[in-house]
Amino acid sequence: MRKERDAMADTTVHLAPGPDLEPAGPLDNWSARFAELAPVVRLHASPVAQAVIRPTGQEALQRLGLPAACRLRRAEDATVIWLGPDEYLAWAADVAPHEFAASIADRVQGEAYVADASGQRTRIELGGPRAETILAHGCAIDLSPRAFGPDDVAQTLLAQAAVIVHRVPDGFAIFVRSSYADYLAAWLVDAATEYVADPTPAPLP
Fold first, then answer.
1. Mean pLDDT on 117-142
2. In terms of DSSP H, where are the helices of the chain?
């Protein structure tokens, strides 16, 4: 009888891992709060597959067309940014992380170290007429179009969190360590809230 009661009490649903079962992103719970800022402030998580590339020779640099220091380079199937001497970060949307890393490894043919880094950083996009002003609350570098163009990349601090920032057509994309994603989301929402009631951008000096 005890075994029967134990069996009846076990209502756990066991799901086998598969390609359709992906772990929840660190900012999944922020979607509703981000939506409240629209359309004045466009803020959303932008999941991408990521891979770290560390080339071992010049042939790998040429084959991948890797960018110069503090720059970004776009290709048909990936975007690559410079992280530091001999280290780059590549990313792409709508592709499985392991497939993305494997495709890059195939292209470099053993002339670079390639590792899936999709879980290390979270990508956030910020747009709207106040995007630069919002970032200026916590970032010391000049992100105006005159100083920070479309293919420029900066590693800096935003609200004391280490980030990678680059300009996208309608604003900025920010990479932050996934362990700090929740903290940065809260900071961005707080910094953006005051502008929702006053969407007019301040005049440039």
1. 96
2. 2-9, 31-37, 58-64, 97-108, 131-136, 181-196
